[in-house]
Amino acid sequence: MAEREELTWDLFGSASRDLARQVAESGFAPDLILSIARGGLFVAGALGYALDVKNLHVMNVEFYTGVNQRLDLPVMLPPVPNAVDLTGARVLVADDVADTGATLKLVRDFCADHVADVRCAVVYEKPTSAVSCEYVWRRTERWINFPWSSQPPVVAREGQVLDA
């Protein structure tokens, strides 16, 4: 198996603070942070606290169905944020990784016609990304093991508890 990036919870804490410093030092002051669920929820929450931004929104986008398995195109899942809530705002889009960049492009393009400014912050960016993010903690070509998704679920979707 190819070598992987290993992000621990402790390292994520440092990474999110570094991302917040990049945003602050650039002079960009977001009015709201738009999280791409699910991995972006952790990033958005950490950035929200570090940048003192309480206005957090969530956009649910389905793209990955497994390791290196994805849909042909990312799909927005309901509820889709109301564009009126974004009008004129400075938006920071937060996600865990810019892999192909398709998800970030979908969300950024959704925002572009309504907001004053939209920028992207990710923990990892891959060279294959169609979006070049303004704020990146680390660039890699490897598959990433995130602390929130590297272990199997505790409960199966059907509600059955899995064996430990």
Automatic annotation (TrEMBL):
<dbReference type="Pfam" id="PF00156">
    <property type="entry name" value="Pribosyltran"/>
</dbReference>
<protein>
    <recommendedName>
        <fullName>Phosphoribosyltransferase domain-containing protein</fullName>
    </recommendedName>
</protein>
<feature type="domain" description="Phosphoribosyltransferase">
    <location>
        <begin position="11"/>
        <end position="149"/>
    </location>
</feature>
<dbReference type="InterPro" id="IPR000836">
    <property type="entry name" value="PRTase_dom"/>
</dbReference>
<dbReference type="InterPro" id="IPR029057">
    <property type="entry name" value="PRTase-like"/>
</dbReference>
<keyword id="KW-0328">Glycosyltransferase</keyword>
<dbReference type="GO" id="GO:0016757">
    <property type="term" value="F:glycosyltransferase activity"/>
</dbReference>
<keyword id="KW-0808">Transferase</keyword>
